[in-house]
Amino acid sequence: MRCPPPTRAAESRRRLLVALGLAALVLEACSDGAPAIDAAVDLLADSISTERSDWRRTDATGVERCEPSADLLKRIDPSRIKADLAFLTSLARSGGNQRKAADYLRTTLAKIPGLLVREHSYSYSGTSFVNLEATLPGGEAQDKYIVACAHYDSVSGSPGADDNASGTATVLEVARALIWCKPRRSIRLVFFSNEEISAGTIGSIEYVSWVKPTMPPANVVGVVNVDTVAYGPDTEDLDLVTKPAHKAFADATKVAIEQSTSLKVKEVVGDQPGMGDEGAFWSEGYTALLAIEEHTGGQPPVKNPNYHTAGDTLATLNPALHAQVTRAILAAVTSFANGL
């Protein structure tokens, strides 16, 4: 017997159960490690593997495209974002305590169909750390890339909900939304360790040095670094921070977001110091920008009063804003992947 398609109310209940189920596993994962992490990730993987893929679009040659259509953007699931946030903020993610977060990201990415996942390992101060990279291969322009990234570590003593579990959860949900896609250019999603250390953005600096021979700046349309994006009212805008030389990329990103979402976008163009992971790309000649909530231009870089404190908790974030930002990043990435 074939069951009828689920109603909107049934789908909402399913999503809520997914979030609640993962939240129930968080405390267990903190103490039991990999087995509980696998169980949590399996629960979320089930939430995407059973969804219909009728949002797909096909060009004249029959190749599936990843267009930033309304149907594609609907695949962003706030309950999954919340579940990721709950898990990440339950973990210590500073200094040498970043491994469980990395394990969670690696396991999640490995269960998303179509992604090629690599781990980049490096040593810093005698300790081994990892960056995670997930690539959705393109079609006729497979050697060209659009990159979105986020750091998954936090400062010591802070749950790091906004900075930067919010950016990490956004890029992770974008990865889930890309299942079954076949873009023209390749889409690369990267998760960095060790952004929040006094010596600088070590994780992204190490990664850029490692990947540059196989992904040179000439082959990259641009890099969108997603950092601290979920605090503020529903009317909060998304700031695109970049250098004058990269203004055209910021302009195109703004157009892609505003064509597909109602999110307000503001460009902040100037001689930026590159305090985030975008700076590692700038230093090596890549076009890049920082996507961030209201940018102050100084220190702290955002207006969130909980920035780098124990008060940066999940309860202080705005889920509606966060979901809208995630749709915006998905719209930008898929627009560039198909020729913007």
Write the layout of secondary structure elements.
Elements: H1 8-32, H2 34-49, E1 57-58, E2 64-65, H3 70-73, H4 78-89, H5 99-110, E3 116-124, E4 127-136, E5 141-151, H6 161-177, E6 185-192, H7 202-211, E7 220-226, E8 238-242, H8 247-260, E9 265-269, H9 278-283, E10 288-292, H10 319-337
Helix pairs in contact: 1-2, 1-4, 2-5, 4-6, 6-10, 8-10
Overall average residue pLDDT = 87
- First CA to last CA: what distance? 45 Å
Shape: globular
By CATH, the architecture is named 3-Layer(aba) Sandwich
Please write the string of helix (H) and strand (E) elements.
Answer: HHEEHHHEEEHEHEEHEHEH
Number of helices: 10
Total strands: the figure is 10
Q: Percent of residues in beta strands?
A: 15-25%
Top CATH class? Alpha Beta
Share of helical residues: 25-40%
Strand order of the largest sheet: 3-4-6-5-7-10-8-9
Number of domains: 1
In this structure, how is the largest beta sheet organized? 8 strands, mixed
Summarize this entry quickly.
The protein is of the alpha/beta class and about 350 residues long. Helices cover about 40% and strands about 20% of the residues. It has one domain (about 10-335): Zn peptidases (Aminopeptidase, 3-Layer(aba) Sandwich).
